Amino acid sequence: MRTPRGFTLIELLVVIALIAALVGLLLPAVQQAREAARRTQCQNNLKQLGLALHDYHNLCNVFPPSSTSDVEQGGWIGNPRLRHIHSWSNLILPQIEQGPLYQRLDFNVSALHPNNHVVAATQIPVFRCPTYSGARVSADPNYTRFAADYAITNYVAMGGTTAGNLYGQNTGLLVPDGVMHTLSSNAIQEITDGLTHTLLLAETREQRNAVRVDGGTAAVMAMRFDEGNSPTYAGPEIALNYTPYFVYVNPRSDWGPSSQHAGGAMHLLADGSVRFISQHIAAVVYRRLTTRAGGEPIDQGEP
Questions:
Q1: What is the edge-to-edge ordering of all strands in the sheet holding 155-160?
Q2: Closest of 298, 245, 274, 299 to residue 53, by C-alpha
Q3: Distance separating alpha carbons of residues 49 and 29, to the nearest angstrom
Q4: Are strands 264-269 and 199-203 parallel, antiparallel or unpaired?
Q5: Do 217 and 93 touch, CB atoms closer than 8 A?
Q6: Within a domain: 1
Q7: How far, in Å, CA of 198 to CA of 264, rounded?
Q8: What are phi and psi of 144, to 5 degrees?
Q9: What is the pLDDT of residue 303?
Q10: Is the pLDDT assigned to residue 249 strictly greater than 80?
Q11: Is residue 300 in a domain?
């Protein structure tokens, strides 16, 4: 009788090498499929938020402001609990089927008041992009001095083209030119650039200054911050996936409109549609998409 021959060392190594090669080919495809599913879920999140914003508009005849206090108020000031600073996301809780949570809000006091801590600490899935892998709560001292579990959001309002415009209510030099900015009350008829050409929301991957209930950081601008360029205080680069987005003594935000999707971020337009915008989009086009009534064409410079 002949003894069955086993694998030789060379044959075993060849088999292992083939398996490794197959795994190497398979893993990227699996990762791409997972990311495609995550992008779809992120898109659905923004669509839900778009429906909620339009439901709010149907009820109140305006889109919600990014904050119920002026732009100089937020978690970074000396005692933010003396300021109202409720964000747009607090205002639309009934429209995203969070009625019981909305009933727990005390709008007579600040969004960061202890009375509103349960709402501020609640993780709401529609405000979280599934691709985002960062912190779920803010570790910034501006917030941890009050509580260690303030939930952050991955979606912010596109409040203006530049810091000068976003902060224009206080400086008097420029005016806010987005749809949802601090103390705004803009209706659909005021979006004369067209609903399909105007941004409402964008993704953000900011971890410290994106506390969901704080209206002080609930809106971002299209162009990155440049402290030395008055009156716009804008650099030449768009803020989309640019870091550091806002460099100031306090607050400091590493990211404005941004995401962990490769190459850009999801944005919600005023007509309720969702679009992935490349970080290489021409600055002039991104600015024009941010304004509600700039009167500019959106037909050039886009990759």
A1: 219-221, 155-160, 199-203, 264-269, 274-278
A2: 274
A3: 30
A4: antiparallel
A5: no
A6: no
A7: 17
A8: -65, -20
A9: 40
A10: no
A11: no
Q: Residue 176, SS3? A: coil
Examine the pLDDT at 19 and tell me if it is beyond 90.
no
In this prediction, residue 280 carries a pLDDT of 96
Structural domain for 26, as ranges: 10-290
- Condensed to tens digits (0 to 9), the pLDDT of residues 103-144 reads 999 999 999 999 999 999 999 999 999 999 999 999 999 999
Classify the C-alpha dihedral 225-200-292-85 as positive or negative. negative
How do strand 155-160 and strand 219-221 relate by DSSP bridges?
Answer: parallel
The pLDDT tens digits for 106-115 are 999 999 999 9
Q: Could you give the number of structural domains in the chain?
A: 1
Residue 275 bridge partners (DSSP): 267
Query: Residue 128, Cα to own-chain centre: how many angstroms?
Result: 9
* pLDDT tens string 285-297: 999 999 999 888 7
CA distances from 106 to 84, 93, 95, 114, 119 (A): 10, 13, 18, 10, 10
Q: CB of 120 within 8 A of CB of 96?
A: no
What is the C-alpha to C-alpha distance for residues 53 and 50, in angstroms, rounded to an integer?
5
Query: Is 78 within a domain?
Result: yes
Number of H helices, E strands in the chain: 8, 7
Residues 256, 246 contacting (CB under 8 angstroms)? yes
Let me know: does 215 contact 65? Beta carbons within 8 Å.
yes
Give mean pLDDT, residues 37-41.
Answer: 93
Question: pLDDT tens across 73-95, in order?
Answer: 999 999 999 999 999 999 999 99
Q: Does 4 reside within a domain?
A: no
Model pLDDT, residue 5:
57
| CB distance 215 to 221 below 8 Å | no
- pTM value is 0.88
- Which residues on adjacent β-strands are paired with residue 276? 266
Distance of CA 64 to the CA centre of its chain: 16
CB–CB of 278/263 below 8 Å?
A: yes
Go through the chain and tell me how many residues it has: 303
Mean pLDDT of the chain: 91
